[in-house]
Amino acid sequence: MHSNTGQFSISAQCAVFGVSRSGYYAWQKRQGNPSQRQLAREYLDRLVARAFAARKGRSGAVGLTLDLDDLGHKYNRKTVAASMKRQGLIAKAAKKYKATTDSDHNLPVAPNILKQDFSANAPNQKWVCDISHLWTEEGWLYLAVVLDLFSRMVVGLAMDKRMKAALVCDALQMAL
Q1: What DSSP assignment string belongs to 68-118?
Q2: 15-26 core/surface letters (b: 16 or more CB in 10 A; e: else)
């Protein structure tokens, strides 16, 4: 704006850029240095980011406000929430533990054919399968993998949000 003052009035430029004239003159007086409000906002953002990291991303604005209060920094919950929003900090919701394995059942159990012998002399003699869960940006996903014990290569895999028999069947179908 300063370089265009010969061509356009300050009032017109402020209207085009959507800033107030007083704000422009205050910025010019500071010579481009950040305002006290901007410095205070950056300080708060650093405090909130540190407290968020200390809680491993599990606390929202209410919990972080209490943590900052314990450290001697008095901020309103809405101010902390605005800082979190500016920084893109979103608390992970704690979920109730859900058992995924039920070992106490009367269903038939497959025999242990391998008997802990995980060596193979040729491809496709022995396959093993396992299910694991992974945290992704979409939430928890279950992964079923089929490995060939000879090459230790993945020969089949499947991923789903739910751990059902179809998950393992899909991985086995891919391996076949």
Answers
A1: HHHTT----HHHHHHHHHHHT--PPPP---------S--S-----SSTT--
A2: eeeeeeeeebee
- This model's pTM is above 0.70: no
Phi–psi pair at 156, nearest 5 degrees: -160, 145
Closest CA to 161 of 130, 145, 139: 139
Q: How far apart are CA 162 and CA 170, in angstroms?
A: 13
**What's the pLDDT at 70?**
92
Put residue 2 in one of left, alpha, beta given phi > 0 → left and psi -120 to 50 → alpha: alpha
pLDDT in tens, 7-31: 888 888 889 889 898 888 887 887 7
* 127-156 pLDDT per residue, tens: 999 999 999 888 899 999 999 999 999 999
149: nearest Cα among 115, 118, 117, 112: 118
Q: What is the pLDDT of residue 17?
A: 87
Residues 53, 47: Cα–Cα separation, whole Å: 10
Q: Count Cα neighbours of 162 within 13 Å in the Cβ-side half-sphere.
A: 3
Tokens of 15: 């209207």
CB 133 within 8 A of CB 160: no
